[in-house]
């Protein structure tokens, strides 16, 4: 990753931290990934040569840029979903600043409804939005996943009550190995080998 992109990511992360410290309304917070979690996602995409990425929870595009940069190096692309129009606009502008807009399909609206309409297949799925609807979204996505797939979710340690149903759903999936990594706010990682 070149220095210019690293600088942009650091700027976006710091701006997100400042915004979240001042903003009281949850839906207006950026709630960006921790940098080490974002970097790990990027490494997983590149090392596994993942090309069909789905991100649920775009926010201002911080994590989306990490995923798009990794997908660009594998010849892949990202579909990223967010409910909030303002966050969609911010992500679009930030992806353009990063020179990665063409790698990402931004979709605005209710993630569960959108996931139901997606065709896939996806070989990498990252949940970083409403943890309560993630189990239903995962069930909708199962037939749209490649045989060899990574399914990840943030906040596995920081929001244990909110993510409990998702973790229970993942642990019951046949043929998936699952673990929670002590990175950032806790990263749930499920892998099915093709």
Automatic annotation (TrEMBL):
S-adenosyl-L-methionine is among the record's keywords: yes
InterPro entries linked: SAM-dependent_MTases_sf, SAM_O-MeTrfase
The organism of origin for this protein: Dictyobacter formicarum
Keyword Endoplasmic reticulum: no
Protein name according to UniProt: O-methyltransferase
Keyword set, alphabetical order: Methyltransferase, S-adenosyl-L-methionine, Transferase
């Amino acid at each position: 990753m070149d220095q210019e992109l690293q600088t942009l990511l650091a700027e976006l992360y710091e701006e997100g931290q400042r915004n979240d410290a001042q903003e009281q309304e949850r839906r207006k917070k950026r709630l960006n990934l921790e940098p080490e979690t974002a970097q790990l996602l990027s490494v997983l995409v590149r090392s596994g040569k993942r090309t069909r990425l789905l991100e649920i929870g775009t926010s201002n595009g911080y994590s989306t840029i990490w995923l798009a940069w990794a997908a660009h190096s594998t010849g892949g692309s990202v579909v990223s979903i967010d409910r909030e129009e303002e966050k969609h606009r911010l992500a679009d502008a930030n992806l353009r600043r990063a020179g990665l807009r063409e790698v990402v399909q931004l979709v605005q609206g209710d993630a569960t409804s959108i996931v139901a309409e997606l065709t896939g297949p996806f070989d990498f799925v990252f949940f970083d939005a409403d943890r309560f609807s993630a189990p239903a979204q995962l069930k909708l996505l199962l037939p749209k996943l490649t045989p060899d797939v990574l399914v990840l979710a943030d906040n596995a340690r920081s929001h244990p009550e909110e993510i409990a149903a998702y973790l229970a759903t993942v642990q019951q999936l046949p043929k998936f190995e699952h673990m929670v990594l002590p990175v950032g706010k806790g990263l749930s990682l499920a892998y099915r080998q093709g």
